[in-house]
């Protein structure tokens, strides 16, 4: 019996027993705070409008498809330009046969320049198409993320506000005022 009494008496020697304070150790409190916030968002954010997200994704899909169609039209124009360039190349080759005696090297240079400029134009158009598609995808992903977060937050706040009645609200305020009063006494 004496051992049991001694164990309760030894509790009085612990410096943290019976006191309340704030833990200012950032490394210890941030994971706890983040897990609480994420838990609340996940719990209260279950009512996110799935239909709204579906409509948003459908709209984004249509925009991306339109962008792809526009890029394909640009590609078609580039192919037409390539065909024109090939026709011009054939014309240059015929002229090269006629003027071979006068300066074959000058015509060959023009041919290479024409081919290089055409390939550079095609590469630029292809790069533009790829950049446009990537940009639209990133923009749509960011918009979806923002809307999901906003809807989850609104759902959580709505649920929280519906659960918080006047009595609970007043008790929470009183408890917080009491804590701040205790903190002020400790700091004085």
UniProtKB/TrEMBL annotation:
Coiled coil feature spans: 68-102
Membrane topology label: Single-pass membrane protein
MF (Gene Ontology): proton transmembrane transporter activity
BP GO terms, sorted: proton motive force-driven ATP synthesis
TM helices/strands, residue ranges: 32-53
Main subcellular localisation: membrane
InterPro entries tied to this protein: ATP_synth_b/b'su_bac/chlpt (IPR002146)
Assigned keywords, A-Z: ATP synthesis, CF(0), Coiled coil, Hydrogen ion transport, Ion transport, Membrane, Plastid, Transmembrane, Transmembrane helix, Transport
Signal peptide coordinates: none
Record localization: Membrane
One Pfam family named in its UniProt record: ATP-synt_B
GO cellular component entries: proton-transporting ATP synthase complex
Recorded family membership: Belongs to the ATPase B chain family.
Role according to the record: F(1)F(0) ATP synthase produces ATP from ADP in the presence of a proton or sodium gradient. F-type ATPases consist of two structural domains, F(1) containing the extramembraneous catalytic core and F(0) containing the membrane proton channel, linked together by a central stalk and a peripheral stalk. During catalysis, ATP synthesis in the catalytic domain of F(1) is coupled via a rotary mechanism of the central stalk subunits to proton translocation.
The protein's name: ATP synthase CF0 B subunit I
Record organism: Symplocos costaricana
Taxon lineage: Eukaryota, Viridiplantae, Streptophyta, Embryophyta, Tracheophyta
Gene designation: atpF
